[in-house]
Design goal:
Layout (H helix, E strand, L loop, with lengths): L1 H10 L1 H27 L2 H8 L2 H7 L6 H5 L6 H15 L1 H7 L2 H6 L5 H34 L9 H26 L5 H21 L4 H6 L10 H6 L4 H25 L3
Helix pairs in contact: 1-9, 2-9, 6-9, 6-10, 6-11, 9-10, 9-14, 10-11, 10-14
Length: 264
């Protein structure tokens, strides 16, 4: 098992390191911008001119130092990047079927569930590396660039945002891993589940303005990431984390079942 995990991680080490560096650089840039706003007293002026619907959507990200510092944790592009990365990592079994490498793997005295476990561990570690890089950069950037009188974000808030973001990635990664139990083309799974993730986010985005979307939004993992509520301290964080964690485990169970029954 350890050899399989290390081999899979080695295949994506350059991509993983590159994405982690990009996220770290982005987080540093956001902290630098927030420090500039705080030094110039611009947050007070922004609070007066920013429309109410923008504040409702982005929370205190534009009206406070600690809010802007955490903007990357709920920026749609960053969250979707993490989700798509999890999907890519989770489709390795489909890639092995496509390249016929699965024949060499299963020629060894190895149970099929080992391949699913290996892939989940790689996907989980890869996404944790991304969120961990953001967290480490957040605290390092605050120590380096935060103004003396600026209010830092609470450690619990940072951890909660990171946990929600990571679990959403695990949900879609689990779905991709389950789909890989039937698919024979990695690209097909990446495309299908990637589009599903985008559609799920769009449904959540439309939930507040289109009545039919309100019913569908409950099936979207993004519905259970109330970032503005977490920043304000009003979100049911424990409930949402349980829902996301249960969804990820259900997808993983489906992945074990589908891969065990597939015809190789």
């Amino acid at each position: 098992m350890t050899a399989l995990v290390l081999r899979s991680l080695g295949r994506v080490r350059v991509l993983s390191a590159s994405l982690a560096l990009v996220l770290a650089a982005l987080q540093l840039a956001i902290i630098a911008a927030a420090a500039t706003y705080a030094d110039g007293g611009s947050f007070e002026r922004l609070a007066q001119v920013v429309p109410a619907f923008v504040v409702q959507t982005m929370g205190p990200a534009l009206t406070s130092f600690h809010g802007m510092v955490l903007f990357a944790y709920f920026d749609p592009l960053i969250v979707m990047l993490l989700v798509q990365f999890a999907i890519y990592l989770a489709t390795e079994p489909a890639g092995e079927v496509e390249s016929n490498l699965v024949d060499l793997l299963l020629a060894r005295p190895m149970s099929r569930h080992v391949i699913v476990t290996r892939t989940f561990l790689v996907m989980a570690f890869g996404t944790l590396l991304m969120s961990g890089a953001m967290q480490a950069t957040t605290w390092a950037g605050l120590w380096w660039m935060a103004p003396r009188d600026a209010q830092w974000p609470a450690a619990r808030t940072v951890l909660s945002l990171s946990a929600h973001m990571t679990l959403i990635a695990w949900c879609f990664g689990g779905v991709a891993l389950a789909a890989s139990g039937w698919a024979r083309r990695r690209g097909a799974v990446i495309g299908a589940v990637g589009i599903l993730a985008i559609a799920a986010y769009l449904v959540e985005l439309l939930e507040s303005i289109w009545a039919p979307a309100r019913q569908l939004a409950h099936f979207s993992p993004f519905h259970y990431y109330a970032a503005t509520g977490i920043l304000a301290g009003t979100a049911p964080e424990a409930k949402h984390l349980v829902v996301l964690g249960t969804t990820a485990l259900a997808a993983l169970a489906l992945a074990y079942w589908s891969y065990q029954r597939r015809d190789l």
